[in-house]
Every structure is written in structure tokens, then in C-alpha cells.
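Duplicate of earlier report; Transmembrane protein 234 input re-posted below.
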Amino acid sequence: MVLVVEVLSLLLVAALWGATNPFLRKGTEGLEHVKKANKISQFMAEVKFLFLNVKYLVPFLLNQSGSVVFYLTLATTDLSLAVPTVNSLSLVFTMFTGKLLGEEFGGKSAVMGMVLITAGVTLCVLSSVSDPDSAGLNITP
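Output:
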């Protein structure tokens, strides 16, 4: 049986993962201008650029906190419900946040996709909610 807390936790993870993606894209602007002589120094310069950049670091930490919540939620949630729910809804949150930030998102077909994703996730959640009678909790003499 799916608890409300589990569903809310999965929604939180989807929001943290999805909403941070457009901010991470904005935070990496300028990374292409970092140039060094060899691969190792290039890698180190890119890491330095990213982790000293607050526009990247804050969304990155929020995104990673979503991973921690996801890991903790997996202890009590059915994996076949958690993974599709979080992955599909994070796309919805990414598109919504990107639109709020002025990014193009694909028009009517993207909206239709978000509606279908939301409907599919709703069906998954509803099918996971079990009736106490069917779970064998109702003992009749």
C-alpha cells in the first residue's frame, strides 16, 4: 500500500531533480571558454569553474539532496512505482521550470506529453494503492 508520505517524497524528488536542470544549464554557461593545454589540467579547470560558480553549485546541491531523499524513500516504496514516477515527473518539472525561465519547450506537443505523463503516473499510483480487504487485513469469522 502506498502511503501519502511516500507519494509526497517522490514528488519532492521529482521537483528537486527536474526543477534544478534548467538552473544547472544556466550555471554551466561559460564553461566552453575554459581552455587548458592537456586533458588533466582541462578537467581540473572545469571542476574549479563549476564548483566556484554559485549559479551552478546551489542547484547542484539541491539536485543531490533530491538523490538523498530518493534513496531514503526507496527503503519503503515499491521500486516499480518509484522509478517511473520520479523519472517521468522530473521531466514535467524540467519543462515547467524551463518555461518559467524563458526557455522554449516544444509547444502543444510538449503540453500534451506532460498531460499524458501526469495521467500515466496517476494511474500507476492509483493501481499501487491497495484495498485493505484485498491485502488480507480483513479477518472474518
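Confidence is low (pLDDT under 50) at residues 131-141.

Merging into the original ticket.
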